């Protein structure tokens, strides 16, 4: 998920979304893009203890609104955030891919290479997004399990 995002010019990304360049915003982008799994707000708070909780919440909300990140809930209902693909924009996320929750390490992964088929809903319903979860062991935990 995060590996292909490392080459992004974060300052340009903020500017293209009409967001002011601030050190906290740049740090959040840098941390999130370097991760291979989605990152929870509590993990971000712990890693960036000098950024207060309200400021971090506002950064995440602004990034989500602008289509820079998307929210993924883990098996415990905790919100995790992952970088969006280039297809996302303000008001509409195109992150309709499989989300994988590891039952051992509790990490949530965006499996962007697995796109979901078109979903047809009954008349009267309007789809605004689709989220599909799979659970099991991630490659790292699966290796550990096999080694035992």
User: Count of helical segments?
Assistant: 5
The whole-angstrom Rg is 16 Å
Count of separate structural domains: 1
What CATH calls the topology is: Arc Repressor Mutant, subunit A
CATH homologous superfamily (4th level) name = Winged helix-like DNA-binding domain superfamily/Winged helix DNA-binding domain
Task: Name the beta content range.
Answer: 15-25%
User: What order do the helices and strands follow?
Assistant: HHEHHEEEEEH
- The total count of strands amounts to 6
Instruction: Sketch the major β-sheet.
Output: 3 strands, antiparallel
> Which strands sit side by side, in order, in the main sheet?
1-3-2
Low-confidence parts lasting 5 or more residues at pLDDT below 50?
1-7
Cα separation of the termini: 28 Å
User: Which secondary-structure class do the elements indicate?
Assistant: alpha+beta
> What percentage of residues falls in helices of 4 or more residues?
25-40%
Shape: globular
Mean pLDDT: 85
Question: Your description of this structure?
Answer:
It is a single chain. This protein is of the alpha+beta class. The chain has a single domain, classed as Winged helix-like DNA-binding domain superfamily/Winged helix DNA-binding domain (Arc Repressor Mutant, subunit A, Orthogonal Bundle). Helices cover 33% and strands 21% of the residues. The longest helix is centred in the middle third of the chain and has 14 residues. It is globular, with a radius of gyration of 16 Å.
């Amino acid at each position: 998920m995060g590996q292909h995002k490392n080459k992004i010019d974060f300052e340009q990304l903020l500017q293209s979304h009409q967001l002011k360049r601030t050190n906290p915003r740049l740090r959040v982008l840098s941390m999130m893009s370097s991760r291979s799994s989605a990152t929870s707000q509590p993990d971000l708070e712990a890693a960036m203890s000098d950024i207060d909780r309200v400021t971090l919440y506002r950064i995440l909300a602004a990034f989500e609104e602008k289509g820079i990140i998307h929210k993924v809930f883990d098996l415990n209902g905790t919100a995790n955030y992952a970088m969006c693909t280039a297809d996302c924009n303000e008001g509409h996320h195109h992150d309709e891919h499989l989300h994988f929750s590891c039952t051992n390490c509790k990490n949530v992964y965006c499996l962007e290479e697995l796109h979901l088929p078109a979903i047809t809903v009954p008349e009267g319903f309007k789809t605004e997004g689709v989220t599909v979860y799979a659970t099991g062991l991630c490659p790292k935990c699966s290796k550990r399990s096999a080694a035992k």
